[in-house]
Amino acid sequence: MEEEVPDPNLDWILESKLRWIFVGGKGGVGKTTVTCSLGTQLAKRCPSKRFLIISTDPAHNTSDAFAQKFGSEPTPVSGIANLAVMEIDASNKISKFSLPEEMTSAAESSSDPMTAGIMGTIKSMLPDIQGIMGNMPGIDEATGFMEIMKQVETFAFDVVLFDTAPTGHTLRLLAMPETVRKMLKQAETLQSRFGGMFSGLLQSFGTAMDPQVQKEKLENALASTEHLVAQFKDPEVTTFIPVMIPEFLSLYETERLVQELSKYDMDVSSVVINQLLPHSDCCPMCQARTRMQNKYVTQAEDLYGLDFHLVKMILRDHEIRGIDQLEEYGADLFSKH
Question: Is the pTM of this model over 0.85?
Answer without folding.
Answer: no
